[in-house]
Amino acid sequence: MPRNPRPKLAARAAPAPPPPAGEARVQAIVISLAAVGVLAWLGLDTGRGIGWARWAMIGVAAAIGCLPPMARLIAAAVARVRHPSPRARQWTALLVGILSAAYFILTAFNQGRDLFPKTHDDCSYLIGMQMLARGRLWMPPLPLPDFFDSFDILVRPVYCSLYFPGTALLYVPTVWLHWPSYLMPAMASGAVVAMLYLIVTELLDGAAGLLAAVILASLSWFRVYSILLTSHVPMLLFGLLLIWAWLRWREGRQLRWALAMGVFAGWAAITRPADALVYALPLGIAIGWDLLKHRPRGWPAVPALLVAGAAPFLLLQMVFDLGVTGHPLRAPYGYYLERDQPNTSFGFRQYDASAQPQSTLPEKRESYDHWRPYLQAHAPGNVPQLWARRWLPMIAEAITQCRLMLLFIPIALAGLGDRRRLILMGTLPLFVLIYSLNPIFLEHYAILIMPAVIFAILLGGRTLAAGLPRWERQVFAAFVLAVLTISGTSFWEVNRHVSTAQTAVSDETFSSPLLQILHDRLAEDVTQPAVVLFTYHPGGRFFEEPVYNTDVAWPDDAPVIRAHDLGDARNREIYAYYARTQPERMFYRFDPQATPSLKELGRARDLAPASTRPAQ
What we know:
two-stranded antiparallel ribbon, single chain, globular, 4-stranded mixed β-sheet, mainly alpha, about 60% helix, 6 strands
């Protein structure tokens, strides 16, 4: 057979046909939103810096993703995990949760973090747990309140933690089972990562769910709080459980999920009430809309079950309020702020320069003076400027290790066609609105919106790729590799090798050799039973407070009681008290500026004035 003649080469390749009008419109929208994201990124500043090495790694990873062979490989890998079966989804979530919890503990050990309660919040919550473990929300007033006064606890009119009891209720098995204080927070943090995987898998797909889990575990601010006895991780867990229960209720309108929603909403409400509103308000609107529009069978039972699920927790809070403040709707938290942190509660008020804590402790007064500039600046007219210049950059620093990822958030707006996605994304504006009323804003408050931000980033990356169909595979592959590189180099075990001292990640709250020594050696260096009086010098580290008796519900039950050194004249009061109640207690003074720091003073029976000693 004759061979076919070789075709002649065209002088110029034919131009590609223009995209359809609808496709062109989508591209224009996506590109415009991407431009908004870039401007927002530049407007917020590019952050504290991640170092040239990490930038180079991110750029190389994105470039590799643009190569057609790599793009096809990533597309194939994503396809395998994009649609897991219900059983696979459950097992994957369990594995993600276990691995995450284990990692949070392992990295804390690797970093040499202090694995004992040392922050004011830690100690206050642990005291609340000690009381709750014994069936108490508060204890009677202390006989010598000034000696045991401290941050975030009440010593008048009763002795208790100032915080809402939801966190202590979750973590109270720590006391019963004598577990280390970091174990249950790490377990709760692992559960948060698992729940985020489940929710993002349902709202996007399994590949996005796995990416979301990796991103969350890589965030340093989340890891900081992953082992602390604070309310931020429990609140986030209850918020995600609330969304998950709502997603299940929407499937079949089963009433058991309505009851579950009430339980999670109620528990969240007695954990962090303002944060609970951020999750509960969007869901409440969605549930009300569904009930009014569709009127499913048995719909009147839904509100009743919501109330029934939340009622036990709300009643617990009312009992706590009544027992501490005398009013069922006046929380100990607000009562404490009125006493020792005036003008720091939510809302706007005229700044009072003369306001002072009622506590006479110098460290409490110095701490309040530290926050005065925030209180002075908190006015309605200053809110936009504060958010633009201070709070939003702080949030951006907390919710991602590379602010470049924030440019995908505006793009996500083009992908919010599913109402379920709106519920999660709705937490972002609500968070800003509610916390605009807070005079003081700290980075870790943004832990609450990490799921929404992570979801928005992933949705934005998916939407950007879909909006550029000719390069969809390459754009998505570049996005995936960039996200994995940013997240991978944010883990401490990797970060320490690719970052400078100025850009390195650390998950420690603050370094405190003093509290470490007291935790490790104090019980061994004194003759028990003992009372140690701690001396504070003005201008000291007020956040480094040692006077907490966290191992008991009542200070007198501690083998080594910690109390304040109020000076020789006032100290006679505590000598006399223990001479009457526990005369064999050995007294010590701990002065960090003295040599030696720990000095033996004598037994209570010998130190008390003769007129106050019990009869022999």
